[in-house]
Amino acid sequence: MNEQKIISVAIDGPAAAGKSTIAKRVAKILDFTYVDTGAMYRAFTYAVIKAGLNPESEAESCSIIPNTDIELLPNGTVLCNGEDVTKVIREPLVSGNVSYIASYKDIRLALVELQRKMAMSKSVVMDGRDIGTYVLPNAEVKIYQIASVEVRAQRRYIENQEKGIETSMDDVIADVKKRDYIDSHRAFAPLRPAEDAVHLDTDNLTIDEVVEAALKIIEEKTGVKACH
Length: 228
Hints:
Elements: E1 8-12, H1 19-30, E2 33-36, H2 37-50, H3 58-62, E3 70-72, E4 78-80, E5 83-84, H4 92-95, H5 98-102, H6 105-121, E6 124-128, H7 131-135, E7 141-146, H8 149-162, H9 169-185, E8 198-201, H10 207-222
Parallel strand pairs: 1-6, 1-7, 2-6, 7-8
Antiparallel strand pairs: 3-4, 4-5
C-alpha cells in the first residue's frame, strides 16, 4: 500500500497531450486518487453556457461562482449543481470555450482551493495546465507531458470519434492551436513547465509506454513502486 505518506503527482502539459489518460492509469496502478482538474473547468464552462452567459466575458462568467457547485465522484462522474455532465462537457461547444473560463483569475482561485483541499487529505495524481507551477508547487513529482500539435490533434480526433462527437480534423487542429495560445498567454498562472518538472515527450510512445515512463519517474522521485 502506498498511502503511508501523502504524495502529490502533478502532470501538466498542453491541450490533448494525453495527460488525463496517463494520470488515470497511473493513479489506479499506485492506488492514488485521480483529480481531473480539466473536467472541473469544463463543468464550469458548461454552467456558464447553460446560464446563457458569454464565456468570453470574464464579468459574466465569474458572476455565477457563488451558485456553481462542482463535484468529482470516485467513479469518474462529474457533477455540476447535481447534474451529471460527464459526457456533455466533452462536446465541441464546451471544448471551444473552456480556455476562456480557465483564464479568469476568480474562477481559478475558487477551483484551485478545491483542488488543494483534495491533495491535503490523500495521495493524488492531478493533471492540468498549472498544477506544478501554481496549484501544487510543492508536489513531490512534477511531469510536463508534451507532444506535437499534429499528434495531439490526431489523438483528440480519435477520442471524439469514439465518443460519437462529430468534428473535422481541421477543426480539431484549429482548436488545439487556439487553446495553446490562450493557455500560454493568459495573465494568471499561464501554461509553462515548472522549473523542477521532468519533461516527457509522448510523440512516439504508446499509452502503455508513457505510463511506464511516468511510473519510473515517480519511483525515482519518491521510492513508491507500482502496486502491480
